[in-house]
Amino acid sequence: MAEYTYEQLRHKTIGDLREIARGLDHEAVQGFSQLNKEHLLPGLCKALGIDTHEHHHVVGGFDKNGAKKKMRALKAEKQSAFEAGDRARVKMLQRRIHRINHQIRAHVR
């Protein structure tokens, strides 16, 4: 039997998924011909022992941990500026946090 990943199964048609389920004898795929893709895919993953959690990987040499550390420091600084009533500084810090958050998302796939 061929080895599949969650991504490979997710991109297959319902007909392909039912064909794979036809060769399996597992309670998670019982009644596979009546299941739609939304219900059949998790059952197939369970029957094949595939992790359904999608893992995201950082690409491009971006230091995600360093960015998160910087963001935590900025959030603490923003809180102290908020308590001091410095609205302009709070807004500036919010924008910097927002920019770092977008950088993190842009480098994760």
What is shown here, in short?
Helix content is about 60%, strand content about 0%. It has five helices and no strands. The chain has helices spanning about 5-10, 15-20, 35-50, 65-85, 85-105.
Can you offer a commentary on this structure?
- With 109 residues, the chain is an all-alpha fold.
- It folds into two domains: 6-48, no CATH class; 64-107.
- It has helices at residues 6-10, 14-22, 37-48, 64-84, 87-107.
- It is elongated.
Molecular shape:
elongated
Sheet-strand content, in percent, reads under 5%
Rg over alpha carbons: 23 Å
Rounded mean pLDDT score: 89
The helix count comes to 5
State the end-to-end distance.
29 Å
Domains (count) = 2
Give the SSE layout.
Blueprint lengths: L5 H5 L3 H9 L14 H12 L15 H21 L2 H21 L2
Helix pairs in contact: 2-3, 4-5
Which terms would index this structure?
5 helices, about 110 residues, elongated, single chain
